[in-house]
Amino acid sequence: xxxxxxxFVSGTHTGVPPTYEMLKEEHEVSxxxxxxxxxxxxxxVINIHSETAVPDxxxxxxxxxLFMNWCCLGFVAFAYSVxxxxxxxxxxxxxxxxxxxxxxxxxxxxxxxxLFLITGFIVLLGFANLTLYQTAxxxxxxxxxxx
Length: 147
Prior knowledge:
Elements: E1 9-10, E2 13-14, H1 20-32, H2 58-67, H3 73-89, H4 93-146
Antiparallel strand pairs: 1-2
Protein backbone atom coordinates (compact mmCIF):
# COMPACT_ATOMS: atom_id res chain seq x y z
CA UNK A 1 0.00 0.00 0.00
CA UNK A 2 1.41 3.31 -1.07
CA UNK A 3 0.93 6.21 1.32
CA UNK A 4 2.01 9.75 0.88
CA UNK A 5 2.51 11.87 3.93
CA UNK A 6 2.10 15.59 3.71
CA UNK A 7 3.98 17.68 6.19
CA PHE A 8 2.67 21.15 6.68
CA VAL A 9 5.11 23.82 7.62
CA SER A 10 3.20 26.69 9.02
CA GLY A 11 5.11 29.03 11.26
CA THR A 12 5.68 27.49 14.65
CA HIS A 13 3.29 24.56 14.12
CA THR A 14 5.33 22.08 12.13
CA GLY A 15 3.84 18.75 11.22
CA VAL A 16 0.30 19.83 12.19
CA PRO A 17 -2.27 20.54 9.47
CA PRO A 18 -3.27 24.21 9.55
CA THR A 19 -6.71 25.12 10.79
CA TYR A 20 -8.86 27.83 9.31
CA GLU A 21 -7.97 30.22 12.12
CA MET A 22 -4.24 29.65 11.62
CA LEU A 23 -4.47 30.26 7.87
CA LYS A 24 -6.59 33.37 8.42
CA GLU A 25 -4.09 34.74 10.94
CA GLU A 26 -1.14 34.09 8.61
CA HIS A 27 -2.98 35.76 5.75
CA GLU A 28 -3.73 38.85 7.88
CA VAL A 29 -0.09 39.06 8.99
CA SER A 30 1.14 38.80 5.40
CA UNK A 31 -1.32 41.42 4.13
CA UNK A 32 -1.28 43.86 7.02
CA UNK A 33 2.19 43.23 8.29
CA UNK A 34 3.30 42.62 11.85
CA UNK A 35 1.70 44.63 14.64
CA UNK A 36 3.28 48.05 14.88
CA UNK A 37 3.00 48.67 18.60
CA UNK A 38 5.54 47.37 21.04
CA UNK A 39 2.95 47.01 23.78
CA UNK A 40 2.12 43.45 24.79
CA UNK A 41 -0.93 42.03 23.11
CA UNK A 42 -3.94 41.65 25.41
CA UNK A 43 -6.75 39.20 24.97
CA UNK A 44 -10.35 39.31 26.07
CA VAL A 45 -12.25 36.19 27.04
CA ILE A 46 -16.02 36.26 26.75
CA ASN A 47 -17.90 33.48 28.47
CA ILE A 48 -21.13 32.66 26.66
CA HIS A 49 -23.47 30.65 28.82
CA SER A 50 -25.20 27.84 27.04
CA GLU A 51 -28.93 28.33 27.05
CA THR A 52 -30.57 26.01 29.53
CA ALA A 53 -33.50 24.28 27.89
CA VAL A 54 -36.56 24.85 30.04
CA PRO A 55 -39.68 23.35 28.47
CA ASP A 56 -42.63 25.70 28.92
CA UNK A 57 -45.31 23.20 27.79
CA UNK A 58 -47.15 25.91 25.87
CA UNK A 59 -48.40 23.63 23.08
CA UNK A 60 -49.73 21.09 25.57
CA UNK A 61 -51.40 23.90 27.53
CA UNK A 62 -52.97 25.28 24.37
CA UNK A 63 -54.30 21.82 23.50
CA UNK A 64 -55.78 21.43 26.99
CA UNK A 65 -57.25 24.94 26.80
CA LEU A 66 -58.99 24.21 23.51
CA PHE A 67 -60.09 20.61 24.03
CA MET A 68 -59.88 19.64 27.72
CA ASN A 69 -60.65 22.83 29.60
CA TRP A 70 -62.42 21.17 32.54
CA CYS A 71 -62.67 23.51 35.53
CA CYS A 72 -60.50 25.97 33.54
CA LEU A 73 -57.38 23.91 34.31
CA GLY A 74 -56.21 24.14 30.69
CA PHE A 75 -56.52 27.92 30.70
CA VAL A 76 -54.63 28.26 33.99
CA ALA A 77 -51.93 25.90 32.65
CA PHE A 78 -51.69 28.07 29.54
CA ALA A 79 -51.25 31.18 31.70
CA TYR A 80 -48.43 29.51 33.64
CA SER A 81 -46.81 28.39 30.37
CA VAL A 82 -46.82 31.98 29.12
CA UNK A 83 -45.33 33.12 32.44
CA UNK A 84 -42.63 30.47 32.08
CA UNK A 85 -41.82 31.68 28.58
CA UNK A 86 -41.63 35.28 29.83
CA UNK A 87 -39.25 34.29 32.63
CA UNK A 88 -37.11 32.42 30.10
CA UNK A 89 -36.90 35.54 27.93
CA UNK A 90 -35.46 37.60 30.80
CA UNK A 91 -32.97 34.84 31.71
CA UNK A 92 -34.67 33.90 34.97
CA UNK A 93 -34.11 30.14 34.70
CA UNK A 94 -35.31 29.36 38.22
CA UNK A 95 -38.57 31.26 37.75
CA UNK A 96 -39.08 29.67 34.33
CA UNK A 97 -38.58 26.19 35.78
CA UNK A 98 -41.01 26.92 38.62
CA UNK A 99 -43.75 28.17 36.30
CA UNK A 100 -43.10 25.32 33.83
CA UNK A 101 -43.40 22.77 36.62
CA UNK A 102 -46.73 24.25 37.72
CA UNK A 103 -47.95 24.29 34.11
CA UNK A 104 -46.94 20.65 33.71
CA UNK A 105 -48.84 19.59 36.85
CA UNK A 106 -51.93 21.52 35.75
CA UNK A 107 -51.71 19.99 32.27
CA UNK A 108 -51.50 16.48 33.74
CA UNK A 109 -54.51 17.18 35.98
CA UNK A 110 -56.51 18.66 33.07
CA UNK A 111 -55.66 15.71 30.84
CA UNK A 112 -56.49 13.04 33.43
CA UNK A 113 -59.69 14.78 34.49
CA UNK A 114 -60.66 15.30 30.86
CA LEU A 115 -60.06 11.66 29.99
CA PHE A 116 -62.08 10.48 33.02
CA LEU A 117 -64.96 12.80 32.21
CA ILE A 118 -65.02 11.89 28.51
CA THR A 119 -64.84 8.17 29.33
CA GLY A 120 -67.60 8.57 31.93
CA PHE A 121 -69.75 10.49 29.47
CA ILE A 122 -69.34 7.76 26.83
CA VAL A 123 -70.23 5.04 29.37
CA LEU A 124 -73.23 7.08 30.58
CA LEU A 125 -74.36 7.60 26.99
CA GLY A 126 -74.06 3.86 26.36
CA PHE A 127 -76.18 3.04 29.43
CA ALA A 128 -78.77 5.64 28.44
CA ASN A 129 -79.03 4.17 24.93
CA LEU A 130 -79.35 0.65 26.35
CA THR A 131 -82.09 1.75 28.75
CA LEU A 132 -83.91 3.59 25.98
CA TYR A 133 -83.68 0.53 23.73
CA GLN A 134 -85.02 -1.76 26.47
CA THR A 135 -87.87 0.64 27.22
CA ALA A 136 -88.75 0.90 23.54
CA UNK A 137 -88.77 -2.88 22.99
CA UNK A 138 -90.83 -3.39 26.16
CA UNK A 139 -93.43 -0.85 25.07
CA UNK A 140 -93.58 -2.39 21.56
CA UNK A 141 -94.19 -5.83 23.09
CA UNK A 142 -96.90 -4.50 25.37
CA UNK A 143 -98.45 -2.58 22.48
CA UNK A 144 -98.81 -5.71 20.36
CA UNK A 145 -100.77 -7.48 23.03
CA UNK A 146 -103.58 -4.85 22.87
CA UNK A 147 -104.30 -5.40 19.16
